[in-house]
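Slide 14.
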Amino acid sequence: MYIEHLSLKNFRNYEDEEFSFLPKTNILYGKNAQGKTNVLEALYLFSIGKSFRTPQDRELIRFGAEFSRAELTFSDRKRRQKIEIILRRDRKKQIKVGGVVIQKLSELVGTLNVVLFCPEELGLVKEGPHVRRRFIDIALSQLRPNYYRLLSNYHKVLDQRNHLIKKVKFQGANSLLDTLPVWDEKLAACGVEIVRYRREFIETLETYAKKVHTEISGEELGIEYRTRVTTKEDFLEKLSQNLDRELEQGCTLFGPHRDDLLLTVGGRDAKTFASQGQQRTIVLALKLAQADLLFEDTGEYPVLLLDDIMSELDAGRRAYLAKKIQDKQVIITCTDVEPNLSGEQTKTIHIRSGAILKD
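Slide 15: predicted structure.
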C-alpha cells in the first residue's frame, strides 16, 4: 500500500498545492511552522476521517476560505483508488471513495491504513488513560471496521445514558429512571463486545511489541489491558450498584470508556518508573508493532507518517527505526534532511509558507 498523489485546496495554510510521493521514503523538510505537519494531517484524515490535532473540521479550512478540498490517490495489491474530502464551514464534511459518497466514517476506516508517529504521542506512557484508549481504538478500528461501528454505537448509548442521569440530577426528573434499564442493557451488550475485541488485540499486539522492544533496548516490555468488565450480567450489576454515585456525579462511572493499559518495563510500571528514553522506546515499539500487525492481518503494510519524530530519538533509536522502515512507504517531516533516511529511493520536498519550493 502506498500513496501516490495528494492535492490540497484551501487546506490549513495551503491555497492550492500538489504532492507526488515515491513508494519508499519521502521527506518533507523546512523551517518550523511552514506547513509540513499539515500535509501529514491531511493524509491522516483520509485514513481515519478525523484530524489528529483538532476535533473541529472547520479549523482545517484555510483562513478566509469557505471550503476546503483534498484529493488523494493510492494503490494497494488489488487496485488504484481515489478518495476525495470536501469540508465546508456550514455543513458536514463530504467524503467520496471511488467517486461514491459515503454516509458513515465506518465505510472509510480500513480503506487506507496509516500509522502516525508524532511528538504528542510520546505522552502515551505518562498521560491519562484516555490517550491509551485512543491508541487502542484507532489501531483496532483499522484492523476491524466492525469494531469502529460497535464503538460508535457504544458512545451514542453512553451519551444518551449520561444525558438521562444529568436530567435526573439537575432537573429532578426522577420518572426518567424508569427508562434506565433499557440504556443499561444496550450499554452492557456493546461494552462486553468492546472488551472482547480489545483483549484479543492487546494479547496479539504484546507479542509483536515485546520483540521490537527487546531488539531496541534488551529490556522486556509488558502490556496488560485493565478492565472491570467481565460478563454482561456483571456489567449490569455494577451499573445498578453504582447508580447513586452516578446520580451524584452526573455521569456513567463504569464501562470500557474507563479502561486503561498497564505498560511495564522489566516488571515495573512504566508510568511511574520509566525514563524519557524508556518511554520513547515503548511508544516506538507499540507503533511498529501496530504496523506489523496490520501487515500480518491485511497483507498490506500501512503508510508510516513520521512527524518530526527523529529529533525526539537518540542516535541508536534513529538508526533502528531507519533500518526497520527502509522498505516501506514513509512520509516524514523534519527541519533538515535526515541522513539516516537518505538514499536512491528517497524523495525530498522543501516546504515554505504552505508551498513547495523548487530547489
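Speaker note: The two ends are 29 Å apart (CA to CA).
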